[in-house]
Amino acid sequence: MRTLIDTIHTCDASFEQLASKVDSPVLLERPGGSVFRYKNTSVEIAVIQKLARLITSLRACLVLLQAGLFQEMFTIMRTMDEFTEDIAFLCIAIRSGKQTELHAKYIDEFFQEEFDNPNNMLDSSQKRHRVPRKKIQAAIAAMTENQVNPSDSQALHETITKMMSGYVHGASEHILDMYGGDPPRYHLEGLRGTPRETAAHRYCWSYFYRSFLSVVEIANAFGEHDLVKQLYQFRDQFEKQWDRTEWPDADASVRALRERGT
Q1: pLDDT value at position 260?
Q2: What is the Cα–Cα distance from 203 to 96, expressed in whole angstroms?
Q3: Domains of the chain, residue spans
């Protein structure tokens, strides 16, 4: 648990350094009162905002893990899947120094106000034109540094999305994770001390690790080389603490998964 808390603190410090590289929001007057907004929009600002949510999600996961509320933790993890994908997608544009049409569309929708008539929300007619998740996953899969071929990489992202979506939408098979014991019952007070706890800790480690790697990805994209070195040192400590210093070949692992299903 100490390592997870240290990870959050490391992410906090990294966030402050990275956020200082973009403009801060300004206070504007709106019909409903004062609100903070960015005067200008950019890919860099969007990625900082996504990172802010990713870090607060880590804190939420830790609280829910300790409370044994694993279903609720998995629900938050589903949002984290999208945050980490969005960060990877946006960092493509930052590293290359140019936006694709898909990036431009994403940024337009991301900074779009929820209501186009703030004086009367019921009269607002604004609609969002979201970039399909599959297109974001395809852009990530096409990255040349990927260790997995594009087709399998996209399939992995889609599988993770589907796996966690049942917790968000409350699918029956996912809710039944709460059921068990002797006599069997729904564990409404949480699942600490049940067989689900081991898997919950394993998932938590994975999401903390992936979120941390998103911080590294942003630091690289922003050209913060000294910060990247510090983060790699922390990563090495993190992996040693959890005995995860050796990793199998990613492409071979995916091929093994496919062969297992045939």
Answers
A1: 63
A2: 32
A3: 2-246
pLDDT (tens digit, 9 = 90+) per residue, 41-73?
999 999 999 999 999 999 999 999 999 999 999
Confidence check: pLDDT of 108 > 80: yes
* Pick from 158, 134, 17, 161: nearest CA to 80: 161
Greater pLDDT, 234 or 257: 234
Is 0.70 topped by the overall pTM?
yes
